[in-house]
Amino acid sequence: MTSTYELLAARLRTAFDDLLPGADPTLRVSDRSDYQVNGVMAVAKSLGENPRAVADRLMNGLDMGGLATMEVAGPGFINLTLTPELLDGQLRSLLGDDRLGVSEVQGRTAVIDYSAPNVAKEMHVGHLRSTVIGDALARLYRFKGYSVVARNHVGDWGTPFGMLIEHLLDLGEEEAIASLGIGDLNTFYRSAREKFDADDTFKERSRLRVVALQSGDDETLRLWRILVAESVAYFTEVYEALDVTLTPADVVGESFYNPMLNDVVRDLDSAGLIVESDGALCVFPEGFTTREGEPLPVIVQKRDEGFGYAATDLAAVRNRVGDLGGTDLLYVVGAPQAQHFAMVWAVARAAGWLPENVRIEHIAFGSVLGPDRKVFKSRSGETVKLISLLNEAIDKAAATLLERSPDMELEQRTELATHIGRAAIKYADLSSDRQRDYVFDLERMVNFEGDTGPYLQYAHARIRSIFRRLGDEVSFDDVHFMLGEPAERTLALGLLAFPEAVDGAVATCQPHRLTGYLFDLAQRFTSFYEACPVLSVDEPLRSERLALCEITARTLRLGLGLLGIYAPDQM
After folding, report:
1. Separation CA 279–CA 206 (nearest Å)
2. Whole-structure pTM value
3. DSSP labels, 96-163
4. N or C: which end of the chain has fewer CB within 10 A?
5. Do 165 and 77 share a structural domain?
6. How does pLDDT run across 133-160, given as a tens digit for each residue?
């Protein structure tokens, strides 16, 4: 089906184009009507005319075809009120539409870079936002019709692997694999680091091992692969616990790009972009300077002939555009990397590897803070493991369920607590503007009231309980939506706005656009349910209100699912 917004917008564009080609009208939800048309003021300014007079002319030229009634308001706004016929038709279409009005794009491939932990290190709270935001965007983009390629750009190369491999040999392969296999990666890494700092002989062995690794020594590569494989197995356990869609097949670490790095340097040199500076090979992209006004370099190859992050990221851009056919490249990485990416992408564009028709965007995000509004740490001052956060949320949810429903079976409570714990953590992250920091407050996150994941899960379960009480299956084949009560109409308008919420979240890469919509919808339903009895009224009103309940439940379930949150039928 074509969404209500798209139907109205198409009519508006025609009228605006007739008056001023290229004008860009937009619609926004209004308190005084269903929608308010924005863009009239801009057209009036371009024409040098009175905005209200322009609004009158536009309204006279608008053929809404029975979609809405219109009036000019204020200094030059056009208010639209949807007709009962449109509302009825659109709502009945939703009943038979699995996509609930959301259209699909064609022929676009989104490469989404997210999570990116380091081999031989535990995933911690610092990986939470990239993982959760990236996974929500991957789900949203898939739903919108994009071919999505997930890229988990893990840190699996570099000088630390010399000490890690030597430590593995000191422990013995079997013991090392056993310790890595139970997820105690931090202990393994810390032990290697302590030995490296205290033992000069071990330090020299580690240095030589790095040389062997970088030169492609077979035995060293075999040991390196053990570290990578065990770490990826651990990451996969964490992703499965969080219900994140990343798989081992999505792990494409720094090492993958190593064979491409010499070609990166050669081709940049051929393009006349390479400049030697203090023995390093650099590119100086336009527009980037130090505070003193000196040009800032992108170091492609270091003076020791090694390669840094910039070379790897340039190779990744070439691979994602040239080999994967990416039309939209999204990097879900913390805000401090903004300048690095901007400079690398400027070099890629100068080299011709990043055509203008390819969208590339840094999906920056803020930090997770503790109650003291500093970067979140454990009570002992250590970085908090990601799996520990999840387990704590699940335990908290289980305790809440035990208090609320003491007769619930243990197996059911355990499963439900897992869903609620995941929802609590994910929703708290996704419901805030990703570019801002937020405080990790587990007490609030797991609460069944307020703007939380568990509240929306409960809202869905509450609606499903209506149908359980009903017992019989309901047919909506002959239902019509009269919407005689204000609360019914308010809920209906909220249901029809779902495509706008999804499209807004996709276009801006801001999942909180969708969370805000879902919370508002749940509140609209609560007002509707309090004002409009459902099961105790006669037909055809009973079926109409049940149909509104059905669409609301489906919208909550689908919307939460696009965020990676499961909506249980019972809570």
Report:
1. 26
2. 0.94
3. T-TTTT-----S-EEEEE----BTTS--BGGGHHHHHHHHHHHHHHHHTT-EEEEEB--B--STHHHH
4. N
5. no
6. 999 999 999 999 999 999 999 999 988 9
Among the listed residues 392, 404, 400, 374, the one whose alpha carbon sits nearest the alpha carbon of residue 442:
392
- Which of 66, 82, 98 terminates a domain? The answer is 82
The reported pLDDT for the residue numbered 76 is 86
CB 345 within 8 A of CB 333: no
Omega prior to 540 cis, within 30 of 0: yes
CB 61 within 8 A of CB 15: yes
User: How many whole angstroms separate alpha carbon 204 and alpha carbon 201?
Assistant: 5
Identity of the amino acid at 531? A
Q: Give the angle 412-243-434 at the CA atoms, nearest 5°.
A: 125
Residue 241 lies in a domain: yes
Note the pLDDT tens digit of each residue in 10-54.
888 888 888 888 888 888 887 778 999 888 888 888 889 999 999
Report the run of H or E that residue 369 belongs to, with start and end.
strand 368-369
Within a domain: residue 306? no
User: Whose structure tokens read 């798209």?
Assistant: 6
| CA nearest neighbour of 523 among 571, 421, 451 | 451
**Is-contact 315 264, C-beta < 8 A?**
yes
Query: Is residue 300 situated within a structural domain?
Result: no
| Interatomic CA distance for residues 400 and 394, integer angstroms | 10
Looking at 82, 113, 132, the residue that finishes a domain is 82
Token pair recorded at residue 482: 């009269």
pLDDT of the residue at 183: 57
The amino acid at residue 3 is: S
Give me the amino acid identity at 63: D
Q: Is residue 519 part of a domain?
A: yes
The low-confidence residues of the chain, meaning pLDDT below 70, are 181-183, 378-381
Identify which of 13, 120, 5 has the alpha carbon closest to the alpha carbon of residue 63: 13
Q: Give the model's pLDDT for residue 181.
A: 61
Give the number of domains in the chain: 3
